[in-house]
Amino acid sequence: MSTIHAELIKAVELYQQNQYQLARGQFEYVLSQDNSCLIAHRYLAEIALIEGTAKNHIESLIASLAAHPTSSETSHTLGMCYQQARELPQAVEQYRHALEVLLNTPPNHSYKPKPNVEFDTEIHESLLWQTLALFRQANIKSFATAGSLLGIIREGAILPFDKDIDIGVDWGQMEQAITLLKSQGWHEHMRSYDLINPRCFAHPDGVTMDLCGFGVDTVSQRTICGLWMSDIPFEWNRITEYPTINLVEKITPHGNVWHLTQPELTLNALYGDWQTPDPLFDTILCAKNIRSFSLLTQCFVYSRLYKLCLMSEWGKLEHTLNQLSFFDKHDILINKLTDKAKSMQT
Question: Which top-rank group of organisms is this from (predicted)?
């Protein structure tokens, strides 16, 4: 084994151990010896994505992709860098290119999915009600939403396959809610993935929360939420539309909280048939109330489809594609993905 190859393996191991500063130094050393090393360039960009500095790696990834045009992973990473840099048209182009390349690449049967994180429903549900009671005491209009609301209404408890808790708040009170959360030990997780809505928080107990801001569109007067970035045209965002939010007080063992007066209307807007359990439903991609196939929506859709292909999760890929309602039926790439998902299951 060459010295450079050994150093590269060490760098990848450091990255996998989340020792990003040490890994960065190791990858930079590898590039000082061989500036054409595709893996080193890609991993340095991955570290920059975590740190919020991915824009600085766009040029090096473009050069790497020119030298290695069949590297789907490099194209996907470049798409993520463009997305973080708010260059969404270029991000969409790269995500689609990554999918095109991957479709013509033999499946990676050696891929090992990450183990599922154990989900303690009791701790999650307790923190959900505690936080809602805290917000109520501070007169912050808040309520359980998304998967948390679905579990409470349909199952009477947090869904066992959920991964976080979801709380909706008045968009005008977001900063007040964030300040209160931080005073209770919550900290913002991964810069909320470069979004201003929702904001993602982690608790010392290991619970994560999406704090979703609900506002009113000044033009349509519709209640809106979704995935929003700063410094882009607002119509580029992934915007979801909801019925008017009306709240009523509810008594819980943790104190009084706000609760939606007609939660079924919100669930119907988001899920459609919310009464039928569907553990494979992808809320980000398949929500029924997405306003349009906007640029940020496309970024999340194509990136998620890429990861499903990479993991060879063909059943979930087909299920997801069947639920997407805003694709052009003549989109050649999507038709190829659908055919691939079906053929890999026969």
Answer: Bacteria
